[in-house]
Amino acid sequence: MKAVVFAYHDVGVRCLATVLASGLEVPLVVTHADRPGENIWFGSVARLAQAHGLRILTPEDPNERTVVEAVRAIGPDFLFSFYYRRMLGPELLTFATRGALNLHGSLLPKYRGRTPVNWAILRGETETGATLHHMSVKPDAGPIVDQYAVPILPDDTALDVFRKVTCAAELILNRSLPALIAGTATAREQDLSQGSYFGGRRPADGIIDWRQPARQIHDLVRAVAPPFPGAWTDMDGRPMMISRTRIDSAAAPGLAPASLFADHGQLFVATSDGKRLQILELQYDGRTLRPEEVAQRLGGSIALLGTSATTLDAALCTT
Fold first, then answer.
1. What is the pLDDT of residues 236-278, one digit of tens each?
2. Spatial CB neighbours of 227, under 8 Å, sequence gap ≥ 6
């Protein structure tokens, strides 16, 4: 049996390896050329395919005629999409005689669409997972073959959760392939009313709104923490990226929201619900700073983020 694989990213690497281990022949792998300037922190599908001597295409649009005709000529039993960034059109889907399946990084029908891991963390979910489902014209809406849930812990970043989802994706594909190949796999329809579709996120979506409570700010920080673009605020007209936080059990000492202050050598910011958020990692004006050093230099004084903060700025300029 033959499978054409559209794949990218870590999920694409692990799932392509799983397909190859199943004994399916893979005459063609379609992936993306890495974008110039992109932060490539994940594995390379192209490198894995090259190591196995597989034919590779990297089109801008997977539905262009050269790709469509290449897949038609193969006549695949299966067509797989593993974290491939573009929608596959109806014509491509018709070529897979045994099934066209996608691996999505959420527990469908929740978080259909783009960046599902980031959205799940941003919205305070305590669980997500991976779903193997048949592809349809509507994105992430086809019948579900298998799912596997993973926990989202209170301080997990998007990278932490994505690594769990990658493992879940490999697991469900590995356990589903034998039945898919044998023709005995079953699938259940999705109830789309039980979930929502989410779009992509931009770096500007990482700007911190200090009017929000501590939990929402903490969830934003961990949802977009590096290698994603990060959560940002302003200090004296210059950018400050806050990349790791923790909600502290003590209350903020009657300070206005966005007040940055030091306490016993640690750095905190007061939030609108009267709590204090400990800052564990930050960059200021492109420099990585140790929060303990900032706290030491700040002393017990207060600086308001998003406003002129000469006390803090003067301290940081001496680091």
1. 778 889 999 999 988 888 888 888 888 888 999 999 999 999 9
2. 39, 41, 159
